[in-house]
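Long-time lurker, first post.

We've been arguing in lab meeting about whether zinc ion would sit comfortably in this protein at all. Half the group thinks yes, half thinks no, and nobody has a model to point at. So I'm putting the question to the forum: if I give you the sequence and the SMILES, can you give me back a predicted structure of the complex? Inputs are below. Any interpretation is welcome too.
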Amino acid sequence: MTTIIIEGVLFAALVVAVGTLFYLVLIAFTPVGVRLRQTKNRRRIDRAAALVCPIHGPRESNDLVRLASGEVLCPDCYKETLNG
Ligand SMILES: [Zn+2]
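Top reply:
Settle the argument with this. Predicted structure of the protein with zinc ion, as tokens:
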């Protein structure tokens, strides 16, 4: 009984290891990996650009104000809008 359990666990580990190796080879050596990295770069730059207020400069994501419409605003712009 113990042998069967150990064999099952080892088979599952083998499947996971082969899958991980396949994924790593796919990411590192194929155009798919390049495409995924480029998409990741675009998302990172878009996120960084969304944190920069054109008037007040870069902000931390924790400082931003989310409006009821779902739009995110820098806190200084929100104060200026609120106070007129
Ligand atoms: Zn601002």
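For your lab meeting: The first strand starts at residue 52 and ends at 53. DSSP finds three helices and four strands in the chain. Whichever side wins, do check it experimentally.
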